[in-house]
Fold this protein.
Amino acid sequence: MRIVVALGGNALLRRGDRPEAAVQQENVDRVVTALAALAHDHELVITHGNGPQIGLLAMESAADPALTIAYPLDMLGAETQGLIGALLARALHNALPGRRVATLVTHTLVRADDPAFEHPAKFVGQVYGQDVAKALARRRGWRTGPDGGGWRRVVPSPSPRGIVEIETIRELLAAGTLVICAGGGGVPVTADRVSGALTGVEAVVDKDLTAALLAEELKADFLLILTDVPCVYADYGTPDQRPVLDATPARLRGAGYPEGSMGPKAEAAARFVERTGGLAAIGALDAAYEIVHARSGTLVRPDLDGG
């Protein structure tokens, strides 16, 4: 079975972790332990979030006195693909001796007129108190917004329209390679209508939506979205919170999950299932094997009964 695995950005840096190399190495070892059993039995394509990492790089770039202008988000996104991809590739190489593993820096096509550029909503970087966040917004020219119990930077997140390297990914899979690609949703680019020339844009594409598109383009059987909760919850964070173990695209969309947390994951799962008739699931990283075998997580299946 071909499975596209979408790892949450907290797979490498969880809330409260210090953004140090040793911490990320320890966390990536945990990720690979969770995925190794699946890799033995199935064909995997792995993508990942990059919110904490790109936020850290953006802060460092903005504060660097050697720079006249901070590095743009598309370049920082490429850096995070190399960083996280290298960590994952090394750990997978060690866990799966003899298996081909490749990390591919990937570009994602977006539209220059996407409404998201006027309405930034994607959280990146670390969590701050409200006063610190507002001070950073004034000093750096950032936009910030509330995220859980704190505040974070928000940036544009246009919808993914295509994956530039999709044919290369197909060729790598055909050669038996475990591919790590489209990290952080891919480097966002626009394409000239006439020449096709690519231009980077100041944005971060949602990794779950890119994972859904990647899974569709690769004709995957299963889209596995891994995060830091065991499953999707109805009325999350309230006294009426309850697990949703079985869902359809219509039911996921009807629940109105928040855009800053479960919303993109629910939409990604819904898109993939609707467009392909395959299966998707959302659940905890450490339960990856159990989720694929229907023993954990939220299973998303086609609307065979109309919803």
Q: What stands out?
A: DSSP finds nine helices and 17 strands in the chain. The radius of gyration is 19 Å. The mean pLDDT is 92.
